[in-house]
Amino acid sequence: MKSIMLILLLCTSSVLAQEVIPLSDSQRLLLKKNNVIPKRENNIVKFINGDCTKPVFGFYDPLPNVSGYWGVKQGDVIGTWIVVPADGSIDTVYFHVGQNIGADSLVSIRLYNSNIGPHSGPGLPPYPPACTPWGYYFSQHLNKAVPWKASLYPEDDTSWHSTVPIEENSFSPHRLSIFDMGYVPPVRVKPGINKLDLEGTGFAPDVKKGDVIFIDIQPLGVPSESSFTQFYFYEDETKSDSTPASTWIFYNNPIPGWPNCDTISNPPPGWYARSNYQPGIWIHVQTSSNTPPIIKQVVGGDARNTFSTNPISIEYDIYDCNYDTPAVAGVASAFIRWWKMTDLEYLPQQDILMSPTGIGDRWIAEIPRQEQGTAVQYQVVARDSAGLESIGPQINFKIVTLKNKYYWIDTNYSCINKSIANSGSIITYTSFFVPPSTNPLSNPWNDGTAGPFDIGSSFQFFGDTTLRPVAS
To answer: Which residues, 6+ apart, have CB-to-CB distance to 432 below 8 Å?
Structure first.
């Protein structure tokens, strides 16, 4: 019986205070020495377990960068969704914990079929991106918000309470339970990588390739404002606000700064789509089936925003494993599926075939030259000899221009910074104009309009001095 291992990585735009603690350089070095971070040789990322006879990390690897910790208080819950890579059974859940552990070192773990996934959740219309409140169940018996329908008592109302700051209601992140620790003792955690041996419990859930599961980890014990457990999070620069958040945290008693969502002035309890950082939570799947090709990003292999209009080379490492019949394993084809922005819409272009370079598992192709101002979106697609297909991460880039109808970049002008931060008075919430549908939990400083206000001086716009030195 062969095995594969999946770890998903996600990022957000900022490292937050209080509940999020960044790693020091010495901690990063320690992780690298312990083979938690992939080795780099000759500027090519080589994962430690990159062959088919050992566990494989994922079907594409966004070059993981351990960035810091989430702080999760006792009684709160941290969760994430994962796409199952192949048919089999989940025999182990792994999670990465920092040095700080709550007063009670026990955690409870639950697995569900997920309502959140690559095509559903915050960041996809009509829902706002993380960080945003999402919702909760409410137990009249306990007189408080609870994270799961299973937490309700028989006399409780089973309705979902949406807290997302739009008119559209949210929905529970969870569907049916596939593993509940009510059957087994909780896990005692220690700093480093911890695991729950599902196979040893006799309750290893069967899964199918493409299933989306939601994993919850709850530190147990009496809630305390000063006691929390640190969970590692990872960074993936290929993700954006339009990617459904992978970090989810249930807050029993949120306070300003915890969660640190700057769009919320009065945070409600319940689930939060917390960020595009990915918590260090992953699964190990026992499988005997054939799997689709494995697509790995390499350092410098993807396109980035550029001024150049020359063709752009795209490079990936791609290989295939077949656990049923290893002799027939192999990548039959690989190509770039891409789109160009035209009239504010990404339109599909003709696929670009990739070719093996003959060096290791490297495949290469070129996106043809594009005009300045062109926005491009692409993904690498690979198929094995059995026709199974895998798709790499979505990458966006633009051919940047120094001048268009909206702006130009003056490379000779010396910029003089001016600030109005220390003058005047802070604008009150009641001074902002907000749409009638605005959720009362939202922060009008960020989603409303106020003004106009004098910004203190004139400024140049396309070479002319503006006659309206105001801001709103």
So the answer is: 444, 445, 448, 449, 450
What pLDDT shows up at residue 181?
A: 80
Burial of 208 (0-12, 13-18, 19+ CB in 10 A): exposed
Q: What pLDDT does residue 2 have?
A: 46
Task: Spell out the domains of the chain, with CATH numbers in brackets.
Answer: 2-286 (no CATH), 293-398 (2.60.40.10), 415-472 (no CATH)
User: How is 405-472 classified by DSSP, letter by letter?
Assistant: SS-B--SSPPP-----TTSS-PPPGGGSB--TT--TTB-HHHHSB---EE-SS--EETTEE-S--EE-
At 301 the pLDDT is 94
Side chain identity at residue 10, one-letter code: L
List of the chain residues with pLDDT < 50:
1-18, 20-50, 54-64, 468-472
Q: Is 333 helix (H, G, I), strand (E, B) or coil?
A: strand
* pLDDT attached to residue 81: 93
pTM for this entry: 0.57
Query: Are 291 and 140 in contact, with CB atoms under 8 Å apart?
Result: no
Are 272 and 109 within 8 A, CB to CB? no
So what's the pLDDT on residue 50? Answer: 42
Query: DSSP 3-state assignment of 304?
Result: coil
163 contacts: CB under 8 Å, gap ≥ 6: 133, 134, 135, 136, 170, 268, 270, 441
CA angle centred on 302, ends 301 and 303, rounded to 5° = 130
| Structure token digits, residue 255 | 């306070």
**pLDDT per residue over 204-233, tens digit each?**
898 988 899 999 999 998 887 778 999 988
Handedness of CA 26, 30, 35, 40 (dihedral sign): positive
Of 184, 182, 183, 162, the closest CA to residue 171 belongs to 162
Give the residue from 247, 216, 248, 249 showing the smallest Cα distance to 233: 247
**Which of 95, 120, 98 has its CA nearest to residue 110?**
95
